[in-house]
What does this fold into?
Amino acid sequence: MQSLIVFASGAGSNAQAIIDYFKKNGKAKVALIVCNKPNAGVLEIAKREMIPFLLINRRTLGETMLLEQLKSYQPSLIILAGFLLKIPATLVHEFAGRIINIHPALLPAYGGQGMYGHHVHETVIMAKEQKSGITIHYVNELYDEGNTIVQAHCKVLENDTPDTLAARIHKLEHFYYPRAVEFLLGEG
It folds into this structure.
């Protein structure tokens, strides 16, 4: 069974979608959750699912000790699921081609530092875009600039708010992210 590591900073809905997906098909399992916020909902998911977790901060993210801990899990993929810190070059290079991220917009538009969650949806609506969506991409040293794996889109409705658009984007995320992970695992 292939090992997955999930990095998350928030509620963890994408982490839960991935955990549930692979519980059903048995091709992989989330072996570790890494989080940078001590009160994040994803930690409750880790406890409930009995998945080990590491609580880190901006400083420890780049430390050799974390790198060695991650390597000990021999991850097939490291999956960023709403993780808000930039991944340091040491990790990007050590796990080259094995770190992926999901972004709640159609990159290259509406990406980069500070563009996450409601910030993205507000900007998309203010720009009067006709569509938005998700981009699943490889992680490199720059925010949201790694090669695209898959994009999926939905319409931006005339009466959308950041919350209503976010709800449709979450449906895309929860459907496509686990399947993209499965596809990538089959490629390896």
The mean pLDDT is 96. Residues 2-117+134-151+177-187 form a domain with the Rossmann fold fold (CATH 3.40.50.170). Strands lie at 2-8, 28-35, 53-55, 77-80, 99-103, 131-138, 148-155.
